[in-house]
Design goal:
The complex is a heterodimer. Chain A is mostly helical. Chain A has 15 helices and 2 strands. Chain A is 73% helix and 1% strand. In chain A, strand 1 and strand 2 form a beta hairpin. In chain B, helix 12 crosses helix 13 and helix 14 crosses helix 15.
Chain lengths: 285, 513
């Protein structure tokens, strides 16, 4: 008996017109379910407050307008907050790629005592929740004199266990022969990392960049802790400010949320292929 | 070579990941909590002040009693001028004595409220040029308390914040608060506490902490009944119900004639207490026995009322809706109901939400009997100072005094929708003019003198603020009762039993440690 192919036996059962139609219906329903909050968010952002509060809600805005968006940019520092978030997230994510790749490479390619212990410690740190460490981190940032600076927003998040683990898994899959030939050609260890290793883990690099970018972009508590000035606020902190003491201007909050997620959405659209490849490969190895 | 057949799967996976990323990006967090407590309250007296302040003038002149203040709200300009003059005089005195200082003020006000707060700070800095106030929005109450927990560990506390009584007790026990008692009573730099709502002075006096003032009144809000006047008038009612019996009668007509529920019930401990207080269910806690009073008759009546509202279809809870307070407002703005009970602080939001589409106003919570005082609950954060340096402590006290002055409170109340905790604000031209433009706030101002604190208290002070977990218990039981998952008897039993366990442990820690 030969190997199973598409269209053979059991596999074929999943591809009859009826089951395919059913699969599409289920997928469309799931997509609609997943997209409904986004649709609600966008449409609410286009409504005036009185319409945004209507029960039952209007599915299509009766008086759609971008006034709320204009108000947000005119009356708040949203543009500044977006730039702050971009600045912080790009540097944090870049740091994760650089330091994660270096550490991952070292853990795979360089033989040294305690390598496994270090790997275990790195992985263990991944399991400690942020909430358990943030007061200690806050004290440290304060002692370093970094309170209310961009440094406090960026530096603590420039390296992380997730990135180290992802890169380690990627480097494990690269043949030693490639590096050996580089050494024969007189390449240094860093040169081998930079010219041979890094290009081969491009997908993981993009994955790490995107995921840590999103983490950084979504951070709320840490920026709240270590900043004081409105000029240093990031987008998520800006969003909180639309929830005033006591009540929420829901249309403004949703407009701000739309503005807040757009950069992440665009970035993800651009890099989604790498994320899928990176996550899949990382999972296989 | 890539397998082309994997592309559609990749696209679907990509689309799903995209959606998840967008949803993740839209997420945030905010939740309430309490901090741990350790003993020892810091008592920092204004040691240098008596020598420094030679002229024992108090800053604010004001009527002494609630009645006087409420009955004569229109001597505004003269009183305001007198207050201004008095403040100028005292300001000149203290101005030369205050050392330069930078005050860190962590607060919870954002958007228009942050602008209003910044304006008050600017006014303060103009009056005291040598004092620099760094006012910072630090998120809601929970993030702010978390930030303060970090600041305590880092020994880098702000000078001033706004918070509630349970947090105040915890910080007091941690020994980081500035005891304001001596500042308040100091003949040179103190304030006339008789001008404040008596309940506010008592609320900020902690009998569990030796009767010290660990916080100071800021602004307040009360539970009120928002009602749709057009709907009520259209059904032949002159106005909102004054008693619960009248309320139920109106609800029956609304259900019969309009096929609508009359009341969207917000699951909220304060609104729950407001209802119970109208039956005489104050206080909810007996501190001596460390137990709740939910097993007593007033609460039996209150819980029966809730059960009746649900059983008859007169009301429905906001349980399960993302933001219950906003859901409450949505129901009212959409004319799904005739009544909602919520904070007077919501008047500006209701104005914007209704956007003139119907006539509405604010009234007292219906009472048990006709002619009864319009009892309700009062709540709101207090000003809390942390003990830092002598110069900063004095400057912080000046800032607290400034923020609680009649002029500042008039401005803050008119711009924020909060109510003043100071009686003479009713005499201010600014606040009187504001009340004329806002009948709902004027109605709330009229009810304010009858409002009770939710804390267990006597006339001298609060007997021991309960933990936040007690509010959670109240709200959990309320939700179960209103969704029909718990009978009135079961609800009372749970409140009594679980309440006793919770409060027993809490007060043992508070009083016996």
């Amino acid at each position: 008996m030969g190997p199973l192919h598409r269209g053979d036996g059991v596999m074929a059962a999943g591809h009859t017109p009826q089951t395919r139609a059913l699969a599409h219906i289920v997928l469309v329903a799931l997509c609609a379910f997943a997209l409904a909050p986004l649709y609600w968010m966008v449409t609410t952002s286009l409504k005036p407050l009185d319409e945004a509060l209507l029960v039952p809600p209007t599915l299509i805005p009766e008086t759609a307008s971008i006034t709320t968006y204009i108000d947000i940019f005119l009356e708040t520092m949203m543009a500044r907050w977006i730039l702050n978030s971009l600045f912080v997230a790009v540097l944090s994510a870049s740091g994760n790629v650089l330091f994660g790749a270096l550490a991952g490479y070292a853990l795979v390619r360089i033989r040294f005592r305690g390598r496994k212990v270090i790997l275990m410690l790195v992985l263990a740190s991944f399991m400690i929740p942020f909430e358990a460490t943030f007061i200690a981190n806050y004290v440290l940032i304060n002692d370093l004199g970094w309170y209310n600076t961009y440094t406090a927003l960026i530096v603590p998040w420039m390296a992380g266990a997730f990135a180290v683990f992802m890169f380690r898994q990627e480097f494990l899959g690269i043949s030693d022969d490639l590096f050996d030939s580089a050494y024969v050609d007189g390449s240094s260890e860093f040169r081998a990392f930079w010219s041979i290793g890094l290009p081969l883990v491009r997908a993981a690099a993009v994955t790490v960049f995107l995921i840590t970018f999103i983490w950084s972009w979504n951070a709320l508590l840490w920026p709240l802790f270590v900043t004081a000035d409105a000029e240093l606020r990031v987008v998520q902190l800006g969003l909180v400010s639309f929830q005033t003491e006591g009540a929420v201007f829901i249309n403004m909050l949703m407009a701000a949320a739309v503005i807040g997620i757009l950069p992440v959405g665009i970035l993800f659209l651009v890099g989604q292929r790498f994320v899928i490849e990176g996550v899949t490969q990382g999972g296989i190895k | 070579m890539k397998d082309r057949s994997s592309r559609p799967k990749g696209m679907i996976l990509g689309a799903l990941l995209m959606v998840m990323a967008l949803i993740a990006a839209a997420c945030g967090d905010d939740e309430p909590a309490t901090t741990t407590s350790t003993p020892d309250v810091t008592t920092a007296a204004p040691a240098t002040t008596e020598a420094a302040m030679e002229e024992p003038e108090t800053t604010e002149a004001a009527p002494a009693t609630t009645e006087a203040a409420m009955e004569e709200p229109d001597t505004t300009e003269a009183t305001s001028a007198t207050t201004e003059a008095a403040m100028e005089e005292t300001t000149t005195t203290t101005l030369a004595q205050l050392e330069p200082a930078t005050i860190q003020f962590w607060h919870v006000y954002s958007g228009p409220l942050e602008e209003a707060m910044n304006e008050l700070v600017a006014r303060f800095e103009a009056r005291y040029p040598q004092i620099d106030v760094e006012a910072q929005f630090t998120g809601g109450y929970y993030p702010t308390s978390q930030k303060i927990a970090g600041a305590i560990e880092a020994d880098d506390l702000p000078n001033l914040t706004v918070a509630f009584e349970d947090a105040t007790v915890n910080w007091g026990r941690a020994g980081v608060l500035l005891d304001l008692t001596d500042y308040v009573n100091d003949p040179a730099i103190g304030v006339d506490v008789a001008d404040f709502l008596p309940v506010e002075i008592a609320r900020n006096t902690y009998l569990s902490e030796g009767g010290r003032m660990l916080s100071f009144p800021w602004t307040v809000a009360i539970a009120v009944m928002f009602h749709n006047l057009d709907m009520l008038n259209g059904l032949g009612f002159d106005g909102p119900a004054e008693t619960w019996d009248e309320f139920l009668a109106q609800c029956e007509v609304i259900l019969t004639e309009l096929n609508k529920s009359c009341y969207s019930i917000q699951v909220d401990a304060s609104m729950w207490n407001a209802t119970g207080f109208t039956y005489g269910g104050f206080p909810t806690i007996d501190v001596e026995t460390r137990a709740t009073r939910y097993g007593e008759e007033p609460w039996t009546k209150a819980l029966d009322l809730f059960a009746t509202l649900i059983e008859e279809g007169y009301g429905f809870p906001t349980v399960g809706r993302a933001d219950e307070a906003t859901a409450n407002l949505s129901d009212f703005a959409s004319q799904q109901v005739a009544y909602i009970m919520t904070s007077s602080r919501w008047v500006p939001f209701v104005e914007e939400g209704v956007a003139g589409s119907f006539n509405w106003s604010v009234g007292a919570v219906p009472q048990e009997f006709e002619g009864a005082d319009p009892v309700t609950v009062l709540f709101g954060p207090n000003a809390i100072a942390f003990n830092t340096t002598e110069a900063e402590n004095l400057a912080t006290w000046e800032l607290i005094k400034f923020l609680s002055s009649a002029d500042s409170q008039a401005y803050w109340a008119a711009t924020s929708g909060n109510l003043p905790s100071r009686l003479s604000v009713g005499d201010s031209a600014e606040y009187s003019a504001f009340l004329e433009t806002s009948p709902p706030m004027a109605a709330a101002w009229e009810i304010l003198p009858y409002a009770l604190s939710e804390l267990p208290m006597n006339d001298e002070g609060n007997l021991g603020p309960p933990p936040f977990s007690f509010r959670v218990l109240q709200q959990d039981v309320q939700a179960e009762l209103l969704t029909g998952n718990m009978s009135r008897e079961e609800a009372q039993r749970k409140l009594v039993e679980d309440g006793a366990t919770l409060l027993g442990e809490y007060y043992a820690n508070l009083f016996d440690s």
